[in-house]
């Protein structure tokens, strides 16, 4: 409106300028043409303004607002003056009802008359061990200099607050019967409540005129309306974990001497537990193989004695006790199965073990060795 006035003045100014230089007839003609156009433009802008007034944008700037009159009103949401809602507040429709508390007014108009410029305060409800109330100012909270808007607040009862601070995520709701959904207002950040700031809310949740607009469906069944609130008390985490990789392994090598190898008749044998990098491990052999290796190769595995399931990088060896050309295979990965951990079914063929020139079996003794290069670990903490 204001800019339109100025435009009009500017136009009239130039008309006068033209008048001075040219002739009255021309000016009258110009005004006759320009005036209806101005009126048309003015009417159009007023219509657009009225539409915008119906739907208000919190986080949205005016250029995102629907500004053509064809857009259905019920597609948009209320709020008249964008500056009045904080940039942190956003709104949307949702199906689920509020889960903390609801207030229904059988007649919003009657409540408005009775409360007038004051507030309606719900009875206390308990969330997170604290008592809360929902405050509704149907005609704006005058202490926040609000007029013509509905203001809503959540208040924590100070009986339960001494010096401690409570952080809570707050959402406010208005039910729309037409959509059968809840228009939801929420802030990006949880709010701090404490003795000197026991309440928080949205002073300009929705303009009274938008609220009352019948096509929004907030007032239904002859005057009924429903307001709601969600309070979720948030506490900082008290438990956490840190995932890291242990690279500098203390005592990385362990050698296991298996004597009287030819007499072994059990399926598998497990070494005594040993410590590498501050963790306990065992080695496990299947002298006659396991799975696809059965009867063909020796199977060799590294296991965690405490059943850790971390990522491990290690070298497994069968030692050549004569020429020291050991058979070495590197493993890397997560364990395949708790019973076998990290390793290989087909580590060395039985033929190679029996081949005396390979030096694996000397005096009927087999030596297997592990060198642990790194392993991941997860440390758990709690307060
Ligand atoms: C608790 O709140 C009431 C009103 O809500 C106020 O009058 C009173 O001073 C408050 N008490 C404390 C300890 O803050
Ligand atoms: C909440 O309010 C109830 C009833 O008004 C009261 O009995 C209770 O002690 C309050 N709880 C806290 C934590 O203040
Ligand atoms: C590791 O797992 C085995 C078999 O699942 C179980 O018998 C053993 O008690 C577990 N050891 C530890 C330290 O959890
Ligand atoms: C898991 O098993 C596969 C196939 O048996 C093998 O190739 C792989 O190296 C094993 N991974 C580890 C970490 O042992
Ligand atoms: C034993 O190992 C040597 C050296 O690797 C090889 O030349 C020979 O053929 C093997 N003997 C048998 C019977 O496999
Ligand atoms: C094999 O055993 C004999 C006696 O048991 C011993 O004298 C010899 O040193 C052993 N050889 C090796 C390579 O350990």
Automatic annotation (TrEMBL):
Domain MATH: 98-231, 251-372
A Pfam cross-reference name: MATH_2
Chain segments annotated as transmembrane: 12-34
InterPro entries listed in its UniProt record: MATH/TRAF_dom, TRAF-like
Keywords for this protein: Membrane, Transmembrane, Transmembrane helix
UniProt protein name: MATH domain-containing protein
């Amino acid at each position: 409106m204001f800019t339109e006035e100025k435009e009009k003045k500017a136009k009239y100014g130039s008309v006068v300028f033209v008048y001075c230089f040219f002739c009255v007839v021309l000016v009258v003609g110009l005004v006759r043409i320009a005036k209806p156009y101005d009126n048309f433009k003015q009417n159009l802008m007023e219509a657009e303004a009225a539409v915008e007034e119906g739907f208000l944008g919190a986080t949205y700037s005016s250029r995102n607002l629907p500004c053509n009159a064809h857009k259905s009103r019920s597609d948009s949401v209320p709020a008249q003056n964008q500056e009045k809602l904080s940039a942190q507040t956003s709104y949307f429709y949702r199906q689920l009802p509020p889960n903390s508390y609801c207030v229904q007014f059988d007649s919003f108009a009657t409540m408005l008359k009775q409360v007038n410029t004051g507030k309606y305060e719900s009875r206390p409800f308990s969330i997170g061990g604290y008592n809360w109330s929902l405050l509704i100012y149907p005609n704006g909270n005058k202490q926040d200099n609000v007029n013509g808007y509905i203001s809503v607040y959540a208040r924590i009862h100070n009986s339960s607050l001494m010096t401690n601070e409570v952080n809570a995520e707050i959402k406010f709701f208005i039910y729309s019967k037409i959509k059968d959904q809840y228009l939801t207002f929420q802030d990006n950040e949880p709010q701090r409540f404490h003795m000197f700031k026991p309440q928080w809310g949205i002073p300009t949740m929705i303009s009274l005129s938008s609220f009352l607009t019948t096509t929004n469906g907030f007032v239904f069944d002859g005057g009924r309306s429903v307001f709601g609130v969600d309070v979720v008390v948030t506490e900082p985490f008290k438990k956490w974990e840190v995932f890291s990789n242990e690279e500098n392994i203390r005592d990385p090598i362990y050698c296991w001497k298996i004597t009287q190898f030819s007499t072994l008749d059990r399926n598998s044998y497990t070494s005594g537990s040993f410590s590498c990098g501050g963790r306990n491990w065992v080695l496990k052999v299947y002298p006659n193989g396991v799975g696809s290796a059965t009867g063909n190769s020796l199977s060799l595995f590294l296991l965690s004695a405490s059943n850790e399931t971390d990522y491990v990088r290690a070298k497994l060896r069968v030692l050549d006790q004569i020429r020291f050309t050991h058979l070495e295979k590197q493993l890397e990965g997560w364990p395949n199965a708790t019973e076998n951990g990290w390793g290989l079914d087909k580590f060395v063929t039985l033929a190679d073990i029996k081949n005396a020139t390979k030096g694996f079996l000397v005096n009927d003794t087999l030596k297997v060795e592990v060198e642990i290069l790194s392993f991941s670990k997860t440390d758990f903490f709690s307060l």
